[in-house]
Write a structure and sequence with these properties.
Length: 546
């Protein structure tokens, strides 16, 4: 017997509709690319998103058409999130930090019909030249007064955002369609091969938003003020652009200003309570706070993910600024949230050493997903906090295939192979030890590069550290520590190696240290280890003769 309850498709437009009706006065504050601060409300955002959606329809955009964005976190990008998805088209967010060839590939692979572009990326658009041939129009996200003088390939229309939406209708009613309809497309920033597209659905995005707003996850409320530093051009700013309207939380967008000084100012002026971003951003803010003596007293929680968050950072924000760092893990293919680190009953929830220790782990699984770890033969490994294995996930917001069917080997019997290596402890807390490709295999045993990096960055002389495998005649591979020294310090190889004593098993301690000026990063801020391994491929370890 079927239940007798109303059935409505889970559609993204319902979020902005709800926010406008029930939290219409809640504010959205943006640092703009043109300069200055823009302020308006959910009510305004909803009206303008409806204008945009209806204007797109008038131009012939149909259900399933891809609309690209090259934009920072800001109010117009939010309108695009809702205006495009609201009419059943697909918001294809493009990471502007990718190489231009990759961007050209992505725009053509996705077959974007329109591109919405922030003024920062005028040179990027010009550089794409004939690669834009398949695009109908490029809409610059500004008013007429700020329109750039750009020459686009023949047949590609040059458009102004404010004029574009002026053609639309703010009373337009969002349509209903199948909740499994695609709403977003985001390409992975893979370090090898071409980027692959994760195609989100309305249903998956809505379920992700519900789950991510649970109290033990982001747990936002209408009393929160959220600053997503994590970009809207990469995995929907971890869902924050959906979570905040769902509860009517105030939203604060940093625009292109991601430096410590700008973030601190916005946090203080707007009363930010929750913020989310990758460790490098928080390192920049921490350095600024320490050197300026400024505070971020309104901030209760900093959600950190994308790369492992070192203990030293959790402790610094806790001890010095009273902010709870919460470690999260996820990926493009998971919309992105997978695990979130909130203490369970009986665990330390107040700031202190125990809390900081626990936060080293990436957290426990969010309801709606499943996870397991397995060895190379596909045997499931125990949840004992020690056994490392390939991390597999499945669930409502995990991709079932890549756009246009690429990368099929990642999808196995209903599970998605994350490419991460992890342990899971008996309480269900997962800890990433490596990417599969980065794990160091020494004499047949695995060494976690992330564990070693976490320890290294705890040394006051280290600004950034990476551990990579280096060829060794006896052990096959041994760890090599590559370090960027903190400015004004002169830490030595010997001091650093001694720093590991007592913190890890002796055979895990790196065989050597190399000092560099900076480390190469991917478009999403992760250390580009393939490049580092190439760079040190001829390096002879001092232990090679042992
Ligand atoms: P992306 O798809 O670009 O968001 O990257 C996803 C990958 O980033 C994951 O598969 C992990 O390798 C890595 N990652 C994300 N969050 C964390 C974290 N908290 N700790 C360590 N690695 C992480």
């Amino acid at each position: 017997m079927l239940g007798l309850m109303q059935e409505k498709p889970l559609l993204i437009s319902s979020l902005i509709d709800y926010a406008a009706k029930h939290h219409g006065d809640a504010e959205i504050v943006s640092n703009t690319v043109e300069g200055g601060t823009h302020r308006y409300t959910y009510r305004d955002a909803d009206r303008r998103a409806r204008r945009l959606g209806s204007a797109l329809l008038r131009r012939g955009v149909k259900l399933g058409d891809r609309i690209g964005t090259l934009a920072w976190n800001g109010y117009r990008h939010l309108e695009i999130y809702y205006g495009v998805a609201g009419v059943g088209a697909i918001v294809h967010t493009i990471n502007p930090r990718l190489f231009p060839e990759q961007i050209a590939y992505i725009v053509n692979h996705a077959e974007d019909s329109y591109l919405f572009v922030d003024l920062t990326f005028v040179p990027l658009i010009e550089g794409l030249g004939d690669h834009l041939a398949g695009v109908k129009g490029v809409v610059f996200m500004c008013d007429r007064a700020h329109m750039p003088a750009v020459t686009l390939p023949a047949g590609v229309e040059l458009l102004c955002y404010e004029e574009f939406i002026a053609d639309g209708d703010e009373t337009y009613v969002w349509p209903e369609f199948d909740e499994r309809t695609a709403c977003g497309l985001c390409y992975t920033s893979g370090t090898t091969g071409n980027p692959k597209g994760a195609l989100y659905a309305h249903r998956s995005t809505m379920l992700h938003a519900y789950a991510a707003n649970l109290p033990d996850v982001f747990g936002l409320s209408s009393r929160d003020c959220v600053l997503p530093v994590v970009p809207m051009f990469h995995v929907n700013a971890w869902g924050t652009a959906y979570l905040a309207p769902m509860v009517g939380a105030k939203l604060v967008f940093p625009g292109p200003h991601l430096d410590g000084e700008s973030l601190q100012r916005q946090m203080e002026e707007e009363g930010v309570t929750v913020s989310a971003g990758v460790p490098t951003v928080w390192l920049g803010l921490l350095n600024y706070l320490r050197s300026s003596g400024k505070r971020i007293d309104s901030v209760k929680r900093l959600v950190i993910g994308g790369s492992a968050c070192p203990r030293a950072m959790t402790k610094a924000y806790g001890d010095e600024y009273g902010a709870h760092v919460q470690h999260a893990w996820g990926m493009t293919e998971m919309s992105p949230l997978g695990t979130y680190n909130t203490p369970k009953a009986g665990m330390a929830s107040d700031l202190g050493e125990e809390y900081y220790d626990d936060q080293l782990k990436q957290g426990r699984l969010i309801f709606g997903l499943e996870m397991k770890i397995q060895d190379g033969d596909g045997n499931e490994l125990p949840w004992d906090g020690k056994a490392f294995g390939d991390l597999m996930v499945s669930g409502h917001w995990v991709c079932s295939a890549y756009y246009k069917g690429e990368g099929a080997d990642a999808h196995v019997d209903g599970w998605f192979r994350t490419g991460d290596v992890a342990t899971i402890d008996s309480r269900g807390f997962m800890q990433i030890t490596d990417r599969t490709k980065d794990v160091i295999k020494s004499g047949g045993e695995w060494i976690s590069s992330i564990d070693l990096e976490n320890i290294a960055v705890g040394h006051p002389g280290v600004a950034e550290a990476a551990v990579i495998s280096c060829a060794h005649p006896k052990w096959d591979e041994r760890p090599l520590l590559v370090v960027v020294r903190r400015e004004g310090t002169d830490v030595s190889r010997e001091e650093l190696l001694a720093y590991f004593n007592g913190k890890v098993a002796k055979w895990w301690i790196p065989d050597d240290v190399q000092f560099v000026e900076d480390l190469p990063h991917t478009a999403t801020g992760k250390i580009l280890k393939t490049k580092l391994r190439e760079r040190f491929s001829d390096h002879v370890l001092p232990t090679a003769g042992d």
